[in-house]
Amino acid sequence: MLSKGSYLHIEKKVGDLMKIGALKHRITFQTIESETNKNGFETEIYKDYKTLWAKVTNLHGKEYFEAAAIQKEKTVKFIIRATAGIDETMRIIFQGRAYNITFIDNIKYENKYMEIKALEVDDNG
């Protein structure tokens, strides 16, 4: 049987980790590639790179007001397991909407999770 102190230690360890089920949304990372169309002109198209599970949250409190001050209030935070190859040149598709990646943080430099801030793309591009 565990002592009261042991329970507190276990709760602290679990509290530091991502809760089971928090990564419940599917997001797709896309890369932009150049392609020559049938008329010989180069066009840029997005191609799916990788689909992952993520925790998705809106900015709130101080973060929201700071973003709103510079017209970036449509910023969303995505948290994923650390994944090689993800960078700021990509975009994210979530629930049919596109988000341009503006910042990637390797949380606590532990290579376990990444927090990605991304700005929703307007319908007109």
Characteristic key phrases:
single chain, 125 residues, alpha+beta, Thrombin, subunit H, 6-stranded antiparallel beta barrel, 2 helices, elongated, SPP1 family predicted phage head-tail adaptor, Phage_SPP1_head-tail_adaptor
How would you sum up this structure, described in words?
The chain is α+β, with helices and mostly antiparallel strands and 125 residues long. It has one domain: Thrombin, subunit H, CATH 2.40.10.270. 17% of the residues lie in helices and 46% in strands. It has helices at residues 4-16, 62-69, and strands spanning 25-36, 42-58, 75-81, 91-94, 97-106, 113-120. A hairpin with a 6-residue loop joins strand 5 (97-106) and strand 6 (113-120).
Radius of gyration, in angstroms, nearest whole number: 19 Å
Low-confidence stretches: 6-16
Which class of secondary structure composition applies to the elements?
alpha+beta
Spatial order of the strands forming the largest sheet: 1-2-3-6-5-4
How many separate domains make up the residues?
A: 1
Q: Which class in CATH terms?
A: Mainly Beta
Q: Work out the number of β strands.
A: 6
Q: How many helices does DSSP assign?
A: 2
Average of pLDDT:
81
CATH H-level name... which superfamily?
Bacteriophage SPP1 head-tail adaptor protein
What does the main sheet amount to? 6 strands, antiparallel, barrel
**What is the 3D form?**
elongated
Measured by DSSP, the beta-strand proportion falls in over 45%
Q: Could you estimate the helical fraction of the residues in percent?
A: 10-25%
| Cα end-to-end separation | 60 Å
CATH fold-type name: Thrombin, subunit H
- How do the helices and strands follow one another from N- to C-terminus? HEEHEEEE
Known CATH architecture: Beta Barrel
